[in-house]
Amino acid sequence: MICYLVFLAFPLFWLISTAFKAPQELGSVDPSWLPQHPSLDNFRDAFDQQPLLRSALNSLIVAVTAAAISVLIAVPAAYAMVRYRSPVSKAATGWILVSQMFPFVLVIIPLFLVLKNLELINSLFGLILVYVVWNLPFALWMLQGYVRAVPRSLEEAAAIDGCSRFRTLVSVVFPLLTPGLVATVMFSFVTAWNEFFFALVLLKSPEKQTMSVILTHFLGAEGAADLGPLAAAAVLATLPSLVFFALLQRRLVSGMVSGAVKG
């Protein structure tokens, strides 16, 4: 586990170190682990070269909206698929698993044509719809496992106490799904924030491009990278995901039995 953590942490460490290095250190044939003369010049250059704040706002709008819509649709759908078993729900579960194997390249052309007919090309709303559809299969698959873990006896006990179906879902079932909801929201947010291919194809105007697309603008025509500003911009691009995870990670544990207690 320690080796695995080091394997995951080293790229982030090297990225942060590079972001604070001066141009002379970046061009050195014998690079140092830590910046010898830490500087914020790379961050200033990154903001001067590209509209990072605007692209970050676009990414935030798209990621938050897509995550919220995905969860709002997935929660009742997952509950219905688990509690009301039928050939249709079984077929839907199988289709969810199969759809996860579709590569991006397979769907991008028909998807582009559909959005073009709806006049949603070069639109943040169109990109949000794409991310919602793309995240829904995984969200449904994940939440079904959490719904199955909720004992039916709790719902029956709430019904005996006079709770309606809606009150039972809100007061008993949904609090027990809190860890699953948080995990689904985190997955949907991070997926939408980091996604590059759909954003590159569907967004044409520079003022509407997301953070992941803007990062490619630090690459020259022949693939030469402006390494310092690129590293600085990449560090800034990772911060929202880290902050989002830090805010929600404690909710992964809380709520495991809160529904039973409230019921």
TrEMBL record:
Membrane topology according to the record: Multi-pass membrane protein
Assigned keywords, A-Z: Cell membrane, Membrane, Transmembrane, Transmembrane helix, Transport
Main location: membrane
Subcellular location(s) of the protein: Cell membrane
Alphabetical list of Pfam families matching this protein: BPD_transp_1
Keyword Transmembrane: yes
Domain of life: Bacteria
Domain ABC transmembrane type-1: 56-248
InterPro entries on file: BP-dep_ABC_trans_perm, MetI-like, MetI-like_sf
Transmembrane stretches, start-end: 60-82, 94-115, 121-143, 169-193, 227-248
Similarity comment text for this entry: Belongs to the binding-protein-dependent transport system permease family.
The protein, known as: Carbohydrate ABC transporter permease
Record organism: Streptomyces gossypii
